[in-house]
Amino acid sequence: MLEMPVGSIARILVVDDEPEIVAFIRELLISRGYDVLGLSDSRKAAIQFDLFQPDVCVFDFRMPHQSGADLLNVVKQKDPRVEVLFLTAQDEAALAVDLMKRGATDFLLKPVELNHLLLSIGRALEHRRLIIENESYRFHLEQLVLEKTSALNEALTSLGEVHSALLDALSMALDFRDQSTSGHSRRVATLTAGVASEMGIRDAALVQIEHGALLHDIGKLKTPDSILWKPAKLTPEEWKIMRLHAEYGHQFLRNVEFLKDAADLVYSHHEKFDGTGYPRGLRGEEIPFGARIFAIVDTVDAMIYKRPYNNPVSFRVAAAEVRRCTGTQFDPSVVEPTLAYLSEHIPSHLR
Fold first, then answer.
1. What span, in angstroms and rounded, lies between the C-alpha atoms of 280 and 62?
2. How far is CA 3 from the centre of its chain?
3. pLDDT by residue (tens digit) across 26-48?
C-alpha cells in the first residue's frame, strides 16, 4: 500500500485534450510547489498513472479516445484513495455530480478560476491525507487486536481475564471503526444481559450473551470504509458486502476459546424469527436465545438514539414498532419481557 511520505511533494496528474490548458495548469501548479505530469492524450493516462502514482488527478470531462468518466473508473481501480477532480463545461455539471457519487472529489466549470482550482486541490490533498492516516491507524489497531487475541488464546485462563483484556481491546476497535454509533455496543450489551438475567440466564451463559452483544459488529472491521461510511443508500452489491459482517465476526471469534458461544450470537444477530433474516435464514428457536433478545434491544436502541441516517423517536413509538413486528422479526415469547425491562432501564428522557 503506497503512502505519501510526510513532507513529500504532492503529485498531480492533469489530463485534457487541449494542450494549452494542460500546459497552463501544469505551470500554475508547479509554481505552487507541486510535482505535475500533464497529458493531452487520454490513452496514455493509465500507463502514466502507474509510473507517476499521483495523489490527485485533474481530468477533463469530455475527451476523445477515453472520457473523464472512463479514466475515473480506471484510476479508482488502481488506487481507490486517489482524488479526482473534473473540469467540465456548463452543460456537463449534472453529469459531473453523478460522477462524484461514484468517487470523484469535485468538479470545476470551465474556464477554470485559478483560486478555485488551488482550493479544490488543497481540499483533495487534505482528504487523501486523512484517509491514509485513518487506514494506517485502523491497520495498526487491527494488528493490535489480532496480537492480543493470539496472546489471550494461549495465556488467558478465565472469563474474567477475557472480559478485562480482550473485550476492552475489541470494544476500542469497534468504537474507532464506527464513531457514529459510539457507546451503542456497550449499551446494548448491558441491556441484553439484563434482560437475559431477568429471564433466568445465569453464570457463563449470561457472560457469553453479554460478550456476544458487545462484539456483535466486530465483523465490520473488515467492511470497506466506502461502504460502512457511505452517506447514501447502498447498492445491492454493497449490501451483499455489508451483510458479510455477521460471518466475518463469527469467523473472528469462533477461534477464541472463551468466546465460542458469543460467536454464535454474533453470527445470528441479523436473523429474523420468520426465517427472512441473514446470513443463514434461521427460523424460530433455531436462532440462539441471546440473539433473539438482542434483536429487540438493538432495534430499540437504534430508534431512540440519534443516528446519521435517522432521527430518534420515543421509547413508546419504538416499542410499538417492535410489537408490530412480533412473530415476523421478533420472537413473541421474549418481546414483552424485553420491552418491560427496557422501559425501566433506559434513560428517562428517552421514554
1. 47
2. 21
3. 999 999 999 999 999 999 999 99
